[in-house]
Amino acid sequence: MENKKETYSLNDDRRVRVLSPGAMVAKRFFRNRLAVVGLIMLLTMFVFSFIGGLLSPYDQDEQFYATTQQQQEYVGVVRNNDFRYTVADGMEFGSAAQAQFLLAQGKGESTFSYKDVTYEWVEEGADLYSIYANGTLLAFAAKDIVNEEEAALPFSVKYEALKAYVNGETSFTAEGASYELDEEGNIIENGAVIGYVSRFVVRSQENGVVISRDFREALEDAIETEVSDFVYTGEDGETYTYEITYNASAQNWSVLQTKDTYVYDRYASPSSRHWLGLDTNGMDMLTRLMYGGRVSLVIGFIVVLIAAFLGIILGGIAGYFGRWVDNLIMRIVDIFYCIPSMPLIIILGSAMDNAQMDSQLRMLYLMLILGFLSWPSIARMVRGQILLLREQEFMTAAEASGIRASRRIFKHLIPNVIPQLIVICTMSLGSTIITESTLSFLGLGVKFPFASWGNIMTDVNDAFVMTHYWYIWIPAGICLLITVLGFNFVGDGLRDAFDPRMKR
Amino acid sequence: MSNNTDYILQVKDLKKYFPIKGGLLSHTVGQVKAVDGVTFNLKRGTTMGLVGESGCGKTTTGRVILRLAGEKTGGEVLFNGQEVYDMSHKQLRGLRTKMQIIFQDPFSSLSPRLPVGEIIGEAVREHKLVSKAEFNDYIDNVMDHCGLQPFHKDRYPHEFSGGQRQRICIARALALNPEFVVCDEPVSALDVSIQAQIINLLKELQEQRGLTYLFISHDLSVVEHISDTVGVMYLGNLVEYGATDDIFKNPLHPYTKALFSAIPVPDPKAKMNRIVLEGSIPSPANPPAGCKFHTRCANCMEKCKHEAPVQKEIEPGHYVVCHLYDDAKDVSKKEAPHA
Predict the structure, then answer these.
(1) Which residues, in sequence order, are CB contacts of A6 under 8 Å at separation 6+?
(2) What is the reported pLDDT for B1?
(3) What is the CATH number of the domain that holds A32?
């Protein structure tokens, strides 16, 4: 015996390499070029998703900001070119009379009459006319405007102030009080500014914006010196740049306030910091793709694991025990085949929306639902395979050798089902990932802040985004394509490898 | 039937019917009478050949004896005087080591996912026939006896030829150290040179271990070579049964005669006197009334069509079931074969 062993060991066991069925399958698999390509594709996606996420300097829900210059219409300025009439207290100078005055002033006639009243006017200075009726000062017409700071100014103060302003005087008296007038047109009483004279009418374009005196002066200076923009620091210390544009037809100036604002950097183009740009929330696209891949792959695997677990157990029981057990389980399978899965998932998705479920919990439920819906096909396959194997003579031989049932199932039946199982699981991984992406795309699957290739692509339902920002949706689509294609290639390769008859 | 210790196996009026399910509620609409009253005794250390054309129930008989085809329909199977079908599952598991089976197809009878050492040794470990320390040597020894080499243990069935696979099957059966082996056409899937090797191996092992074989085959020359006794089956019935020499030299039943006339004689000058049977074997689901063979029998009498013949011992140890021998003297004066 010992001698024999020696000679045997020098025999062909040294020359012939012993290949287990697993090694044979691997050998055949790696001979299939398409399958190897699929495997490389899958490995790439795995590395990208699981290791890429660790290497990325950003977090999946880290938002990036950018400063942008926001322009808004701040004020509108009109230079007053029409006479404005200020009527003395208790007097009357209606608009018809005003029109008569304009006519007379235009013709150079110093008197005019309206409704049996004869009026006369006196030019007090540039664009300032006093209008008398029967020697009483009735009103004055001016192009400059007296703006009151706080309290209303009496007629005489306004009149005297304008007179002083147009004649370039620095002080005037009215009703016994003396006032000063500075170069800017400010009316000062006892050192306090009570009003000012100006030809510009400044109106704010936004509600609630109070235009300060200082700003006005700066603005008027800018208009008079004909500069197109100026910088002004307000009382609150904020410095903005203002841009002045003159509209010749309307004869007004509009002032745009240019603000530096700090906003989410939405749809930023690819750059060295963000290789695939930023998404609609200002999050790094590449990082989100990595994390999204993680979610999509993990969901795929867990769903298939759940489905395979249920499928093997139920299919195995049905196939091994047969009779009414088989009948019952197969009818359940038939019922499951009748359930339209998409509407069901959509209904459950919106139910979860309604319950405002936590994103993480939702992901878990999604996996359970998908897994629970996809076991029947695996169960059917396992059952068929076991029915086939049960009648094989090696099963009878095992029975004839008195090997116990559990060992017959786990050592003889299951290992022979595993090839088909691996193939069907690989194939269904691809389709599960597609289903998950579809649901996430529709907003019923994985929810923000978690990324998934499906919900990354959701942005594309905006046509503008689709046409202008390719980097928002094309990379996610490519990831999905590569992964599913990889699973299908590998699945095909495995099928061919497990079954030599499939060789073309 | 007495519990004679000379007999390892006693089969009496064994019946196995398979139900035919049909109709709306899948109730039983008929029965396939695969084994319909088979009676024989098998002496310890001998080989019984079981011959007959395809579909006559040879294989089913073998499996029913081993209780591998569900419950029997009727009759008795006594192994060492014990009714196989009365045993509990635990007892039956113990019995499995005593009676083994070798299958026809060496390809489907080996699980493709187990290495050969595991296939052979699995049941040995399961029944704890040898201690763990001796296990490897024991398996090597069994394999050596069956013409396999120890390094074959780590290989898988797909790496072997048909003949080697059949040796693995034999090794698997013999590893349990059985007393009785059903050889279910063990050589019909092999080519002739390998057939001879396997037959000689079986004979050798029989001599060494005192095995008893039930050798099922449709190959008459193989059966003649290996068997001590021969049973001829037709449509679930054992029509003739006796010592090999008696059966081959003096076939009594018309079916046996027809069957043996088909054995080619290796002599070109010899005149073949073939009896050609007309028609094909009737359906076992609906067998003819009376003698089942009467539809094809050249010696068919009116009686044959109505009355089923009974087994008669014409010569000592030579039994036949045929109306032609109704008038002949029954040596044992009993219906049941009993030497």
Answers:
(1) none
(2) 45
(3) 1.10.3720.10
Cβ–Cβ contact A348 with B under 8 A: no
The pLDDT mean for chain A works out to 82
Whether A41 and A126 map to the same domain: the answer is no
Pair of tokens at residue A151: 């309290």
Cβ atoms B180, B79 nearer than 8 A: yes
Nearest to A397 among B126, B159, B172 (CB): B172
In the numeric block, which tokens belong to residue A166?
């147009």
B287, with CB counted inside 10 A (0-12, 13-18, 19+), is buried
Q: What are the CA-CA distances from residue B17 to residues A208, B27, B176 (Å)?
A: 101, 15, 30
Element of type H or E holding B281 = none
Indicate whether A29 and A86 sit together in one domain: no
Check if A4 contacts B (Cβ < 8 Å).
Answer: yes
DSSP for A409-465?
IIIIIHHHHHHHHHHHHHHHHHHHHHHHHHHHHTTSSS-TTS--HHHHGGGGGSHHH
Instruction: Tell me if A189 sits within 8 A of A181, measured CB to CB.
Output: no
Q: Which residues contact B67 (CB under 8 A, 6 or more apart)?
A: B77, B84, B85, B92
For residues B262 and B227, give the distance between their C-alpha atoms in angstroms, rounded to a whole number. 19
Chain A residue with CA closest to B137: the answer is A1
Residues A468 and A385 in one domain: yes
The shortest C-alpha distance from A22 to chain B (Å) reads 9
A23 touches chain B (CB under 8 A): no
Domain boundary among A142, A158, A188: A142
The reported pTM is 0.69
C-beta atoms of B126 and A400 within 8 A: no
The predicted-structure confidence for A41-76, as pLDDT tens digits, reads as follows: 999 999 998 888 888 888 877 888 877 777 777 788
Range of the domain at A469: 21-64+272-498
Contacts of A18 in chain B (CB under 8 A): 154-155, 159
Q: Report how many domains make up chain A.
A: 2
Say if A347 falls within a structural domain. yes
Provide, as residue numbers in chain A, all residues whose Cβ is less than 8 Å from the Cβ of B127. 402
Contact call for residues B32 and B285 (beta carbons, < 8 A): yes
CB atoms within 10 A of CB B120: 29
The tens digit of pLDDT for each residue in A85-120 reads 888 887 878 888 888 888 888 888 888 888 878 888
Going through A45-175 in order, the beta strands assigned E by DSSP cover: 65-79, 84-87, 111-114, 117-125, 128-133, 136-142, 145-148, 171-174
Please tell me which of the candidates A20, A21, A399 has its beta carbon nearest to residue B68: A399
**Percent of chain A scoring above 70 in pLDDT:** 95
Residue B135 corresponds to which tokens in the numbers above?
Answer: 């296990």
ipTM of the complex: 0.81
